[in-house]
Amino acid sequence: MSTHDATIPSSPTSKDPGTVKMHSYWLDTATPSGDYTQTPLPKEVDVAVVGAGFTGLSTAYHAAKAGKSVAVLETNTVNWGASGRNGGMATTGLAIGFRTAIKRYGEQRAIGYFREYNAAIDLIEDLVREHDLDVDYARTGKMNLAWKPSHLEGLKQTAEALHRLVDQPVRIVERDDIRSEIGSDVYHGAMVDPLGAGMHVGKFGHALAGLAVDEGATIHEHAEVVGLERKGSTTVHDIQTSRGTLRAGSVVVGTSGYTGKPFGWQQRRIIPVGSFIVVTEPLPQEVVDELLPNRRMASDTKNFIYYFRITPDNRLLFGGRARFALSDPSQDRESGEILKKAMHRIFPQVRQARIDYMWGGLVDISMDQMVHAGERNGVFYSTNYSGHGVQMANYMGKVMADVVAGETHRNIWRDLKHPWIPGYFGKPWLHLRAGGAYYALQDRLS
Ligand SMILES: Cc1cc2nc3c(=O)[nH]c(=O)nc-3n(C[C@H](O)[C@H](O)[C@H](O)COP(=O)(O)OP(=O)(O)OC[C@H]3O[C@@H](n4cnc5c(N)ncnc54)[C@H](O)[C@@H]3O)c2cc1C
């Protein structure tokens, strides 16, 4: 079979929806480092971390390594949130793009913000090397695909700015050459950045939990934080959880798109938006070699973005916003069906491939789509990764461990204004509809 003919042969189960698992492929193919549902709650710790995603687990690991007593409090289980549900793409660059960052913040600050993402990928790589983690980490690069001809012009300008200002080794792939990067003729060119990486985020989250526990942190699953009582004007809090109360010298909130009532100030600054993923059955080698020959982490330039990659066991993972919605089993299935059609449009080669997994999760969008981290009313927090948290949440965990220890300057995002979302009190529906209509229009007009 020539590479351009590679397709999946029809299989009897290809269209059988009953075989689809409605949960994350990553969690299904990773083993937890332990069962933390019964871990006794300590009476008092130096640092209590809320949320056992990458932010919380990384904060716990680094704070415990620095000698602090640490407890991680999690409503569900380790890696249950976005950290166990994402595309597994540790990509370079800001959610808003480099040129927008320059316009908004000026060159010097934009350069600083951009470099944090490179440093965040380096941190994952260091961790993987230092502990010999089996997490399928590979720096195969990322690519941004131009949905429209005008978008390629934009990518070219971005590439020029990245070369000139940060020496980023990006390169442009013209439309004529696009088959060297992707087995699809839908896109008008691409920008490739070899510094992007991919990994198995199920294995990574569980490994991070194991590292935190090895350093002496305790993890408490099924321990929802339901209230906080600040002691005077200090950072000390009594924390009420569904498993009892404990006192912490500092509290770090890493609840991302799942931020709820006990953290009202943060909640009013995060709109949770559903992002959805479908994963095919394992594909023949010649098919994956055609779809993404260089195994890049790919995303396109639409507002209703598509992103895709090959998993470590040769499946096509295809994700996107699909539509502006939250995530629950019925939304995930509806959005999954939309994505399946989109995937077939981009890659007709996999029309016959069985879909093995379909799921969704929440990303944490703010007004400015920038990371927001710092301290408010004595509570530390790091949130708002805007769909770019695989690298940044893990990185911010290390930063927050330093911040809690008094090194506030380590937090480069500390001076960003963090306005509340007007009219938003934690009920995202209205905002989702308005936002969805706006972005759909932008995609049509751009
Ligand atoms: C479908 C999808 C695809 C994505 N793809 C990518 C990608 O390819 N690349 C990328 O960079 N980013 C991606 N992201 C974003 C990335 O996954 C997140 O930014 C990152 O995982 C956030 O990590 P976190 O630890 O801050 O939060 P989460 O992993 O969401 O963890 C928050 C945790 O807090 C817990 N919690 C909430 N409230 C409480 C409470 N009161 N008490 C105790 N626990 C509580 C929740 O149960 C949850 O487990 C994607 C996100 C989604 C949903």
Description:
With 446 residues, the protein is of the alpha/beta class. Helices cover 32% and strands 22% of the residues. The protein has 11 helices and 18 strands. It has helices spanning 25-28, 54-65, 98-105, 107-131, 149-166, 201-214, 264-267, 285-291, 329-346, 389-404, 429-445; strands spanning 44-50, 70-73, 89-90, 142-145, 171-174, 189-193, 197-198, 218-220, 225-230, 237-241, 244-253, 271-280, 297-300, 306-310, 316-320, 355-365, 372-376, 379-383. Strands 1, 2, 8, 9, 10, 11, 17 and 18 form an 8-stranded mixed beta sheet that branches. The protein has an 8-stranded mixed beta sheet with strand order 5-6-4-13-14-15-12-16, with helices on both faces. A two-stranded antiparallel sheet has the order 3-7. The longest helix is centred in the first third of the chain and has 25 residues, at 107-131. 50% of the residues are buried. Residues 1-5 and 9-15 have low confidence and may be disordered. Residues 50-56, 73-76, 80-83, 85-89, 91, 224-225, 254-258, 260, 262, 275, 277, 319, 361-363, 385, 387-391, 393 line the site of flavin-adenine dinucleotide.
